[in-house]
Each structure stands twice: as C-alpha cells, then as structure tokens.
Design brief:
With 155 residues, this protein is α/β, with parallel strands linked by helices. Helix content is 44%, strand content 12%. One of its GO terms (cellular component) is lipid droplet.
Length: 155
C-alpha cells in the first residue's frame, strides 16, 4: 500500500499512513514467532519511513502506528489474556480515530502498556524473564482456537 500511495503523497507533501501493528511488534510472545515477526516489521517500517520523511522535510505526511493488545475479533479466540483483557473493536477504532485527528505518531493500547514496555527496556534481562514467567504470558496461547472457519467476518 505504501508503494502505491507514497509517491503521490511525497509529490504533494500530504497524506496520512496508519499501520495496524500490535504489542506483539514490541514484545515477542511464545508460539507466535511468525505473527510477532510481521508486527515487528510493521513497527520498523513505520519508524524508518518517519526518519526518511523527516530527512526530506516532508512534514505534511503524517504517520500513525497502532500497537494494540488483544481485540475481540475472534483472531485470538480461546487464548487466555495475560496482563490485559480483550478490547472491543469499537474502543480500538475510537482510539485510532483520535490518534489520526491529533496526529499522534505511535499508540499502544491499552495505554498503561507503555509502563510494561518501559520496564522491559530498563529492567535487567533476568527480571524481565521472571516477570514474563509469572505474568501468564508463557501459556496464554495454550488454549488458543482462533477464529471459527464458519466465521466469515473481517478482523
């Protein structure tokens, strides 16, 4: 999508790109390595693109990266949320719209997750491992079923 729209945005110095990443793009999770890799890539793409646009002084092109935890779309049906609960799609959409309107570059949902990520980068590695072990993150996918094959709704 960026390849298709970015050249015109650069030419006019106008536009807004929103990337739906995930907290799994900031914190790796067990049994989700492929999902985490794609979400880390989405976060990295937006960070790099921001730096490239800044270097070209293209301040009319806005970027917003959204990193939610679990959203009740059925994608993670059966998983046992650790540290948080499923958020409604309506709540997440409201936060995305607010971020777009306020031109916020980066959003984590729920907002208190900023504290968890700050701790991840400031605590000793062994303390982070202990926290992860005791938080339920290691087994939150043990009962995962995913979206039913009968469910044709979009995430």
């Amino acid at each position: 999508t960026c390849k298709a729209f970015l050249p015109d945005m650069i030419q006019t110095n106008k536009g807004h790109i929103v990337s739906m990443a995930s907290l799994a793009g900031i914190q790796g999770l067990p049994n989700l390595s492929d999902y985490c890799a794609s979400k880390f890539a989405a976060v990295g793409l937006m960070e790099s693109l921001k730096l490239e646009l800044d270097a070209q002084k293209l301040d009319g092109i806005k970027l917003t990266t959204i990193c939610p935890s679990l959203i009740s779309t059925g994608l993670f049906e059966g998983s046992k949320p650790a540290l948080t609960v499923f958020m409604t799609p309506e709540f997440v959409v409201g936060e995305i719209m607010k971020a777009i309107l306020e031109e916020i570059n980066f959003v984590m949902l729920p907002k208190w997750m900023y504290i968890i990520i700050l701790l991840k980068w400031t605590m000793p590695r062994r303390a982070v491992e202990k926290f992860t072990e005791n938080s339920g993150l290691l087994d939150f996918m043990d009962t995962f079923r995913g979206r039913s094959t009968n469910d044709q709704s979009e995430p």
